[in-house]
């Protein structure tokens, strides 16, 4: 095992790798339920809703876990890197808006819309795979200028910290300022202590998350191994003690979940009607819209993965002499195969998960970390309540803590040169503000090309980043996301 995964060579050990795998899993376990919720839009699962929505939910639930297992196993056994894969957040919402919502608006068949969407995902995955096996995707990654390579980890750090703040309710929505700090006064005034208040979480989970973050910082400062996992376990216990609730298991729906997966999930892309609707259906906008959707899903998956790989590999000191992640080609191939497998199973685009940074922060350096994550997902396939036992307030601190660690990379950007400083800053800030890693990279790329061009610094080796910028311009003009 040590020789296969190169555990000692990378300065790790089996115990650390297992702890890192568990940390990554608990940080991203929310995707098990969140992904099917996003695909059907959770408000369509009311008792009196069309039963087709529940069928899609069940199919996507199983398919999402299978895709995560396949992709993460590839990362573990082929790429041998500590990265986990699952269905991309944001992409699942885009799937709903692009394929399910048009059927709802037109009064059509949502299952047929779901199947047409799977075809688009499959084609984008195949394109993605061709880019990977031919090496074109690696060239795209290496075309990024140095300032963006250094800004991407920091931008991802801000993004995942923002996710952590949002997930636990530390940051809440505000109709005037868009966001605000958790409303402790409002919760107390309403007489609430731990319950939901007008749709927003009350302040106790936010306080527990802050305690968790402080606990991680203190434990890590004292070099306590597994500090992140200890914090997750401790805050989970506090959550149940303070809330007075006990975890429960409901196994009654497992059989129906697998039945729906077999009837409408894994069969979707093999239906001729699905292919016809994907490229000619009026609800989806015809062949031009289909092509743009394929390009969009491919671009977002590509740059989300590139961003995550550079960010987490930088955090783990797993970059080569050129500043690129080691085994980057194998990682990208694993990602593209997972997307193809996910589409065949019946779910949206599978991508390298940014929460992998939580496991890297816990010391994960090899594919053994990913293997542990895959095993945990396999358990959830049959015991779905397991993932939900860990409350969000226990996992959010891990994301925030990793965000803190990843910010240090931005200090390496040459801020005295505006050709580097402005694109780097835009990439940094646009990731959390647009809720997209790829958008941040795209905006940074466009800024870099324009500044380089109009300051007379444009060179032959800037052609690659120019092509990337042009593709993002097309995406921003023709696709709303």
Oligomeric state of the chains?
A: single chain
Tell me the total number of β-strands.
Answer: 4
The rough form would be described as: globular
- Overall SS class: mainly alpha
Major beta-sheet overview: 2 strands, antiparallel
- Helical content, roughly? 55-70%
What's the total helix number? Answer: 22
Number of domains: 1
Mean pLDDT: 85
Secondary-structure element string: HHHHEHHHHEEHHHHHHHEHHHHHHH
Strands, helices and their partners?
Blueprint: H1 2-5, H2 14-28, H3 31-40, H4 51-79, E1 85-87, H5 91-106, H6 110-133, H7 136-142, H8 146-168, E2 171-174, E3 178-181, H9 184-189, H10 203-221, H11 227-243, H12 254-265, H13 272-280, H14 286-315, H15 328-345, E4 350-352, H16 356-361, H17 367-382, H18 385-388, H19 392-406, H20 418-434, H21 437-454, H22 463-478
Antiparallel strand pairs: 1-4, 2-3
Helix pairs in contact: 2-17, 2-19, 3-4, 3-5, 4-12, 4-15, 4-17, 5-6, 6-13, 6-14, 6-15, 8-14, 8-19, 8-20, 8-21, 10-11, 10-19, 11-19, 13-14, 14-15, 14-21, 14-22, 20-21, 21-22
Features:
transmembrane; transport; 69% helix; 4 strands; membrane; two-stranded antiparallel ribbon; mainly alpha; 481 residues; two-stranded antiparallel sheet
Structure report:
The protein has 481 residues and is an all-alpha fold. It has one domain (2-478). The chain has 22 helices and 4 strands. The strands form 2 sheets. It has a two-stranded antiparallel ribbon with strand order 1-4. Helix 21 (437-454) crosses helix 22. Its main location: membrane. The chain crosses the membrane at residues 12-33, 56-79, 86-105, 111-131, 151-171, 202-219, 226-242, 284-303, 371-404, 424-451, 463-480. GO terms for molecular function: purine nucleobase transmembrane transporter activity.
């Amino acid at each position: 095992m040590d020789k296969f995964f190169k555990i000692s060579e990378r300065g790790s050990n089996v115990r650390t790798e297992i702890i890192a795998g568990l940390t990554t899993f608990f940080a991203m376990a929310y995707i098990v339920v969140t992904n099917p919720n996003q695909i059907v839009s959770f408000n369509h699962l009311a008792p009196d809703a069309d039963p087709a929505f529940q069928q899609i939910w069940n199919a996507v639930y199983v398919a999402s876990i299978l895709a995560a297992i396949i992709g993460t196993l590839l990362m573990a056994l082929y790429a041998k890197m500590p990265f986990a894969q699952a269905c991309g957040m944001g992409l699942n919402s885009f799937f709903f808006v692009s394929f399910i919502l048009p059927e709802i608006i037109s009064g059509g068949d949502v299952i047929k819309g779901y199947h047409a969407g799977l075809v688009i995902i499959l084609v984008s995955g195949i394109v993605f795979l061709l880019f990977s096996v031919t090496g074109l995707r690696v060239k795209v990654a290496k075309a990024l200028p140095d300032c963006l390579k250094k800004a991407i980890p920091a931008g991802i750090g801000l993004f995942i910290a923002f996710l952590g703040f949002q997930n636990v309710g530390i940051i809440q929505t505000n109709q005037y300022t868009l966001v605000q700090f958790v409303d402790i006064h409002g919760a107390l005034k309403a007489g609430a202590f731990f319950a939901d208040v007008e749709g927003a979480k009350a302040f106790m989970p936010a306080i527990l998350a802050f305690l968790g973050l402080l606990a991680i910082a203190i434990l890590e400062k004292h070099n306590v191994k597994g500090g992140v996992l200890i914090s997750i376990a401790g805050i989970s216990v506090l959550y149940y003690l303070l809330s007075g609730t006990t975890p429960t298991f409901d196994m009654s729906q497992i059989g129906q979940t697998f039945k729906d997966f077999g009837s409408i999930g894994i069969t979707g892309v093999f239906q001729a009607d699905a292919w016809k609707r994907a490229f000619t259906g009026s609800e989806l906008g015809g062949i031009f819209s289909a092509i743009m959707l394929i390009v969009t899903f491919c671009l977002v998956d590509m740059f989300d993965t590139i961003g995550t790989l550079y960010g987490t590999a930088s955090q783990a000191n797993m970059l080569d002499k050129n500043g690129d992640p080691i085994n980057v080609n194998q990682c990208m191939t694993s990602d593209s195969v997972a997307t193809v497998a996910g589409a065949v199973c019946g779910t949206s685009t599978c991508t390298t998960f940014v929460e992998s940074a939580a496991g890297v922060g816990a010391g994960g350096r090899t594919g053994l970390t990913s293997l542990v994550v895959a095993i945990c997902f396999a358990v959830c396939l049959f015991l779905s309540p397991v993932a939900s036992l860990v409350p969000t307030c226990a996992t959010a601190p891990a994301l925030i803590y990793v965000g803190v660690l990843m910010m240090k990379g931005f200090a390496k950007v040459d801020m005295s040169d505006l050709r580097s400083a402005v694109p780097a800053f835009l990439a940094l800030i646009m990731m959390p503000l647009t809720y997209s890693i790829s958008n941040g990279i795209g905006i940074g790329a466009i800024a870099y090309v324009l500044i380089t061009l109009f300051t007379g610094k444009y060179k032959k080796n800037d052609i690659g980043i120019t092509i990337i910028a042009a593709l993002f311009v097309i995406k921003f003009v023709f696709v709303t996301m």
